[in-house]
Specification:
- By secondary structure, the protein is mostly helical.
- The protein has one domain: MFS general substrate transporter like domains (Growth Hormone, Chain: A), CATH 1.20.1250.20.
- The protein is about 75% helix and about 0% strand.
- The chain has 14 helices and no strands.
- Helix 1 (about 30-35) packs across helix 6.
- The radius of gyration is 21 Å and the shape is globular.
- The two termini are about 35 Å apart.
- The relative contact order is 0.16.
């Protein structure tokens, strides 16, 4: 944990991105108390976004195109609600952290119930399963958004310079990767029932820890601020576009990875190894990215992470049955790149909020739109890649050359193209503005 400690921020600074961050002193106790909630939130995300499509396709026999349409609709509904949820979080935080925590506790209870109900439906038949899945997805996604957006806005209100903001986000995302790491092996080892129970306990513990975390600075509530206010900030629009494209590039392989492992690599027994390698590499790379940020800055470090991801996925294109060691190396390299995707964009967003003069007032609004982009990434990845695979002739379990080629091209090359586009936008649309400022 000591690798996450940073020296105290300087007493005086002319950096406009630095606001009152006196409550945050770094160190493992404050980092753990704030970041702990990230663990269960990420724990639930892996089953929802990676395992759920495969579960409903293989266990219940739902066609991929139908499943993709259902996931697209549910995620779009959730995404549209996120900016509204963000503004509500701003009002709760402006009134008191106690009120915000009470609202989060109610949402957490609904989240735990909805998660369990998704994987253990009390109905049978495809039509009934689709209705049940849609309703439970809406409940789970919306309650997840309340807790997640509130947690991100809380951290953004702690302020700081680039290194301090990266440290705050790294605690949240580093512990999130621990949660994902547990979620990647627990269902296979103990079953989905045990995973559901562990998630509920971890969620309660994370909320209790947040009560002991550094409290964000109290700001005036801007209840009358327009919902679109964050989108009127040019820097936010540029960053959001980069984040959106890069996020789709990451969401496509996340949606398809289990199909790739089982059918292309024919290595289903090694799923826990692959997923654990990926997320462990992401968690362990956090100190590396923090060190790079202190030398190169946030944007250049993020660009390096994008390049590493492209190299890893291009290599995966040539893999075939039995290439367990090679794909483990792909998982390790792309996991290190994941660390950059998780730690750096959120820290860049916190700086945008502060430089726009909205610190302590509109963080929830910004992170609501940020969460909207995240959900849109996942919706497009599932809603487009799964039907495309079906049109190209792939179905779970197929081993013919045409099906496997369609799976490999979609899993490997599509993310690379999107990553390169995101990197170009980061270079031309963001870093050149930084150089001129």
């Amino acid at each position: 944990m000591a690798a996450f400690e940073l020296p105290h921020p300087p007493a005086r600074t002319t950096d406009p991105a630095v606001i009152d961050g006196s409550a945050w002193r770094g160190g493992w106790r404050q980092g753990l108390s704030y970041g702990a909630l990230g663990l269960p939130l990420a724990f639930v995300a892996l089953p929802l976004y990676v395992q759920l499509p495969n579960h409903y396709a293989t266990v219940f026999g739902i066609p991929l195109a139908t499943l993709g349409a259902l996931l697209l609709g549910a995620r779009l509904l959730d995404a549209v609600a996120d900016p509204v949820i963000g503004r509500a979080c701003d009002r709760w935080l402006a009134q008191s952290t106690r009120l915000a925590l009470r609202r989060a506790a109610v949402a957490a209870l609904l989240l735990a119930l909805g998660f369990h109900a998704l994987f253990f439906p009390p109905v049978q038949g495809q039509q009934a399963l689709l209705w049940w899945c849609g309703l439970m997805l809406a409940l789970t996604y919306l309650s997840y958004s309340v807790v997640s957006v509130l947690h991100q806005a809380w951290g953004a209100r702690l302020g700081g310079d680039e290194a301090q903001r990266a440290a705050i986000v790294s605690w949240r995302e580093g512990l999130a990767l621990v949660g994902v790491l547990v979620a990647s092996v627990l269902p296979a080892l103990a079953g989905l029932g045990a995973a559901s129970l562990v998630f509920a306990i971890a969620l309660a513990a994370g909320l209790l820890a947040l009560r002991q975390a550094p409290a964000p600075a109290q700001g005036a509530a801007e209840a009358a601020a327009p919902l679109l206010a964050p989108l009127r900030t040019p820097a936010f629009r540029r960053l959001l576009a980069i984040y959106l494209i890069n996020g789709i590039a990451s969401a496509v392989p996340a949606t398809l990875v289990l199909f790739f492992i089982r059918d292309r690599l024919q290595a289903a027994a090694f799923e826990p190894l692959f997923l654990a390698s990926y997320f462990a590499a992401g968690a362990l790379s956090m100190p590396l990215w923090l060190r790079l940020v202190s030398r190169w800055g946030l944007s250049r470090s993020w660009l390096l992470g994008m390049g590493l991801a492209v190299v890893a996925f291009v290599w995966a294109l040539v893999l075939g049955p039995g290439d367990v060691l090679a794909f483990t190396l792909v998982c390790l390299a792309s996991g290190v790149a994941l660390g950059a995707d998780l730690a750096l964009p959120g820290a860049m967003l916190a700086g945008v909020v502060q430089r726009a003069g909205h610190g302590g007032r509109l963080e929830g609004g910004y992170f609501g739109w940020w969460s909207f982009a995240t959900k849109l990434n996942l919706a497009l990845a599932a809603g487009l890649s799964l039907p495309i695979l079906q049109v190209l002739g792939y179905a779970p379990g197929r081993q013919d050359a045409q099906a496997l080629q369609a799976l490999s091209l979609t899993y490997c090359l599509l993310p690379c193209g999107l990553k390169l586009l995101a990197g170009a936008l980061l270079w031309r649309g963001w870093m050149r503005h930084e150089d001129r400022s």
